[in-house]
Specification:
This protein has 251 residues and is α+β, with helices and mostly antiparallel strands. Among the domains are: 83 residues, Alpha-Beta Complex (Photosynthetic Reaction Center, Chain H, domain 2), CATH 3.90.50.10; 46 residues, Molybdopterin biosynthesis moea protein, domain 2 (Alpha-Beta Complex). The protein contains five helices and 18 strands. The strands form four sheets. Strands 1, 9, 10, 11, 12, 13 and 14 form a seven-stranded mixed β-sheet that branches. Strands 6-7-2-3-4-5-8 form a seven-stranded mixed β-sheet. Strand 6 and strand 7 form a beta hairpin. The longest helix has 13 residues. The chain is globular.
């Protein structure tokens, strides 16, 4: 088992080329399956576009690196429509408020535990409102993963675990003992999804449209062969055609 914080920041290294392609910047979560489907890779050169690796293409996650077979497994984010759709859903889990099925807010999630073999989120680390009481909520008590909200069974507090090994005593899993967290004043940080969207919009400006992009009622957003402008990007986003525009451009 791995914590998200143990994966983010790891260098991404290939077996075939023995090359370091960058580092893991963030995880893309599929709320339907409760799993990590993709990992965002920040290239070593900061000016290059962020890239993507499917969880299925991860050969191993160790203490010092994330390993994949070949550099061809690390692709442009814009080439994977499923990943873009998950990014638009904006489910982060970490930082989400916890809501019981009966509608009572109760603490937040500050960490997730991931089975690196399957990508499944096996538990979420809960922090009570006092900032001191903590515990792992097993995945079977999580009803819904939403944007900024985690809905759980009403009795979740009575089923909290101290560490990941309690989830399966027959499996040799990494001990993720919970330690008390000091309550600190809230810090306003940049929304990573918004940051990605802003970067993606900047990336599109100046690229060439490869097919006509139309609204649902047939109005032209961008014509084939046109250079993309900020106005086109904004109109595509407003018409829910941003992903379509992203997938139909070239340099």
């Amino acid at each position: 088992m791995k914590l998200k914080s143990q994966i983010v920041g790891l260098p991404v290294i290939t077996i075939a080329e023995v090359a370091e392609l960058g580092y893991v910047e963030d995880l893309i979560i599929n709320p339907g399956s409760g799993s990590v489907d993709y990992l965002i890779v920040q290239p070593e050169n900061w000016y290059l576009e962020r890239r993507l690796i499917s969880a299925q293409d991860v050969a191993g996650i160790g203490e010092d690196a994330l390993i994949t077979e070949t550099k061809s497994n690390v692709v442009n984010i814009t080439s994977v429509e499923a990943a873009l759709e998950l990014l638009e859903k904006g489910v982060e889990v970490v930082g989400s408020q916890v809501m019981t099925k009966k509608g009572r807010k109760n603490g937040i999630i500050d960490e997730i535990v991931i089975d690196e073999q399957t990508g499944k989120i096996t538990a979420c680390r809960w922090v009570a409102g006092d900032g001191k009481t903590t515990g792992l909520i097993p995945a079977n008590l999580v009803i819904t993963l939403g944007k900024g909200m985690l809905v759980v069974e009403d009795h979740f507090q009575s089923a909290l675990l101290d560490n990941a090994s309690q989830m399966d005593n027959t499996t040799n899993v990494e001990n993720t003992t919970i330690t008390p967290i000091q309550k600190q004043p809230p810090v306003v940080t940049e929304d990573p999804l918004q940051h990605f969207e802003d970067k993606q919009k900047q990336y599109l400006i100046g690229r060439t449209v490869t097919t006509d992009i139309l609204t649902d009622d047939g109005q032209i957003i961008a014509e084939q062969g046109q250079k993309i402008t900020r106005d086109m990007v904004d109109r595509a986003a407003a018409a829910d055609k941003f992903v379509e525009l992203t997938l139909n451009t070239r340099e």
